[in-house]
Target: Citrate synthase
Amino acid sequence: MASLRVLSRSQFRASAPCFSRGSLRFYASAKPQTLKERLAELIPKEIENVKAIKAEHGKKAFGQVTVDQVYGGMRGLPALLWDGSVLDAEEGIRFRGKTIPECQALLPKAPGGSEPLPEGLFWLLLTGEVPTEAQAKSLSEDWAARATLPEFVEEIIDRCPPTLHPMSQFSMAVTALNHDSAFAKAYQEGISKKEYWGPTFEDSMDLIAKLPNIAGRIYRNVFGSGKLPAIDKTKDYSYNLANLLGFGDKEAFVELLRLYITIHSDHEGGNVSAHTGKLVGSALSDPFLAFGASLNGLAGPLHGLANQEVLLWLMKMKSQVGENPSDEKVKEYIWSTLNSGQVVPGYGHAVLRKTDPRYTAQREFAQKHLPDDPMFKLVGKIYNIAPDVLLEAGKAKNPWPNVDAHSGVLLTYYGLTQMQFYTVLFGVSRAFGVAAQLIWDRALGAPLERPKSYSSEAIKKMFANK
Ligand code: CMX
Model:
């Protein structure tokens, strides 16, 4: 279907008129405007916008930095620019101002599907605009066309011992893609700073496009589930990822992946994976190097690896208290976790102070597709019990579940039972948010990140007699 758009003078000459509305004239064009073309229009305006913000507010303070914040993991320190999403402690995430239910309603869907296509979410993260179905489809096609891995990257994955954690394999393969980085090459050839965003965009598109083949190859190598099929160029990104993992014939699983990638894509800029990508990118390391670093942060148990930890914890709980335990047994098990000095995985958050809407979206998916699944019921039971236990324990500032408390149970239901792989799927999704910000950082000429650090001795001296 032809899309409608406002054309530049040169584009106008090549097009046939369609209709006018007010002072705007619209023309039908055979091809939808590409994401790169739209970005090229938006970037000069955003550069002016940022200039104006800095001119008017540049010298104003956000507030004070306390010594507790310096020792306390910089919680709440307002120090980063991140345009794709903003996280509110009570409400949860908004992608370019849109909540998860709004994204579910507004973003393009696959034919017959009801979950948003991550293609549309990427467009939204980059432009702040909801794309047309044709534009989302053009991204599916573009990513399918870029999906092939260099042979040596396939060999790196194939040579990994199956005992090497899938996240380590994932980060190695992503880092190795820097071999063909358009940005690194252009930089060596002396590209002007104003042009940085173009090759960063190309690398980011290549990065996202190649992740399904990397993830699929790791999954099949480690868990021995046979030969990798080819990418289907007529299908969307999530279908191809599901198919490479061996689940292409399960439509509900493909739908789950569409939702999964959308909700895991971005969670503003301060979380470990997002911030690491931005930090490393600020040294003008290309998107493959920057996102490889993100993945190493995501692989930590307090961040993305928590989805693996949750399933391990649930399995242990099930083996101790049975599949349909009493509330009392569940409570005892949670207390035993806390009393042995461990965290309850999937609960708590550095910013959120309410149930994570990413948890709620997955719960609603489960209610629709697997309401009678015993593991889903166990997760629901824990939801009714764990917050009170955590409140009673009195340490966690947020006793509510986060995204990782639910994802593993959904994947397990469809047969993806290998929990060591779960963080790889989080990683595929997180590329969308990190890549979008890397492109904007290069477009806006973001400088090298270099905050100031102090020793404890220096801090003591600074406040002596104060
Ligand atoms: N179980 C037990 N104790 C917890 C807890 C939990 N789920 N959440 C927080 N606490 C403890 C902290 O370990 C900390 O203890 P200490 O004072 O002994 O160090 C105390 O409560 C205060 O922590 P907080 O300010 O509430 O939380 P933080 O901002 O420091 O940490 C997070 C946030 C997510 C690391 C923490 O809640 C946690 O460890 N949760 C379990 C792991 C998890 O689910 N991580 C995934 C988060 C989402 C993601 O990034 O994917």
